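Q: Joint fold for the lines below.
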Amino acid sequence: MSELIASKIQNNPKYHELISRRDSLAWTLSAIVCVLYFGFILMIAFTPDILTSPISAGGVIPVGMLIGVGVIVASCLLTGIYVYRANEIFDPLTQEIIREASK
Amino acid sequence: MRTLKTALLAMAASAALLAANMSRAADIVIPGAPAEVPLNWHAIVMFVIFVAITLGITYWAATRTKTATDFYAAGRGITGLQNGMAIAGDYMSAASFLGIAALVYFNGFYGLIFSVGWLVGWPIILFLIAERLRNLGKYTYADVASFRLQQGPVRTMAAIGSLIVVLWYLIGQAVGAGQLLHTLVPQISYRESIVIVGALIIIYVTFGGMKATTWVQIIKAALLLGGATAMAIGVMAHEDFSFVKLFSDAVALHPKHMEIMKSVVPIGAKANPIESISLGLTLMFGTAGLPHILMRFFTVTNAKAARKSVLYGTCFIGYFYILTFIIGFGAIVLVANNPQYVIDVTKNILNLKGGGSMPAVYLSHALGGDFFLGFIAAVAFATILAVVSGLTLAGASALSHDIYASVIMKGKATEKQEVWVSKLCVIGLGILAVILGIAFEKQNVAYIVALTFSIAACANFPILVMSVFWRGLTTRGAVLGGYVGIFGSIGLLIIGPTVWTKILNMGPALFPYDFPTFVVLPAVLIVSFLASVTDNSEGAKKERAAFDAQKIRSETGLGAEMAATH
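A: Joint structure:
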């Protein structure tokens, strides 16, 4: 990568837009995964009674099982959201930045 | 190519010979000996078919593996879906298939906590590192960590971290392979099982490189997902497709009854908040620091494929873990209390013949007889082969690409030399795995997950993320932080409850937790931060200045390694 291209990219506001939009999405989604997962872990540690209570009176399935499966499903959905956004927004933006830099 | 053909022929011949030998062994009835266990023909036939197919693929891959990029990174021609399968294959080891099912079988709900922890690292890998890894790296994650830092010290640290993780992971897999094969086919001894594994993976990896390793992984992932799906459907069909009936039946049959739905810690253990949190940190960030997993992102065509592969991989793995949960509960209903599988139903209705990892295997027999048992056994063994191949290649690339080519030869080695060294390392690591697997046969290897995941979570992962995201990281910060992560994890594990008290018999543990991540990870971050910000050397200034160029490449993919054209 030549210095010229690098400086063109560095001075292109779209490049900074790409970074800030991608970073904010990536760190927000990471934070959501951490909150979900460590929320689950902290419930195990401090309020196991909530997790072990059955979802319906007299039933066998505990709340924690639904939450656990929910965290697995949510992880898959959140990766899907990121991939969708990246395909729709970040890829075209990146292509534009590269095209403008090599002009 | 002639040598390869001969080697493959020799392998096929010896496999046939082995089978023939065993058929004779099965015919011989030793008078007075305890009832001879019949030879598990289904398993052997299916396993031989798997080996034949994978050797065929290895032959195909070998004819297409010419450059270093082919050898380490499958020519960067793997698609997102293929890599997603391969990632899932690398991650769904026999330990997680048989292990989580067994955890559920003995403890119920508790098994799900592990499944969740083992999955949540994947979104983090996608959001923070997958695409950037592809854009910055060549063959190993050390390429990325050392991108703008001093090659020698950073690569040495990263390679040490990788090798410790790979070696211990290999020991765990080898011991598991030996025990599993010996249990399923008692005519093959523990040692023979490990030697078979070692010989096969050396052939796959030295001849076929990453291309063969990836395709072995893909086939195995398809077999494992298919087999587990069939088992889960079988269980649900038996339970009238009602989860309420499945769980109610399990509660009624399990000796701990309702306890199995309330087990947030292993049944009989005491709840410990710090241990739970530390375990959570270890599983989540450890996943994102495993060298054989990170290496997969260099095999895809571009950052977009890297991104897609994590989506596919996460969905496959999540689906698989939900299946193992159903399988574990299914085993409580169908395997426990069945005199065919249980050692002595009058004493303990859970303890199985062949040991603690058998619930899933016996469940397949309960559902589909000898044929299905043979299939699942062959799949479990194929799983070990595939995972060991990936690990061996990751270890060999750390030795050849990081240590030999970059540190010792300072980048002056030719591509040919590097690949040769790599192949020698594969052979060396394969033999080492066999020797260690035999040496550790009777050892307690319960600390292996904690050890490998702790180092990955405390050294590999934080240094990688800091070097990609933080301008201020310098060589001094990366190296000091990395070594704190590696040796801090090892040190605290040695003085922890499993090693200090149970293995070394030294009395009460000096460090009372099994998972040291909650102490070591913050220490790594603090040390890296302080050592970097106080570094005013000329080198450090250059390293910070080089961040902008690195950032452009990592964000846009400009200058990233291209896919091979052939």
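Q: Anything notable?
A: Chain A has one domain: 3-101. Residues 45 and 71 of chain A are 17 Å apart (CA to CA).
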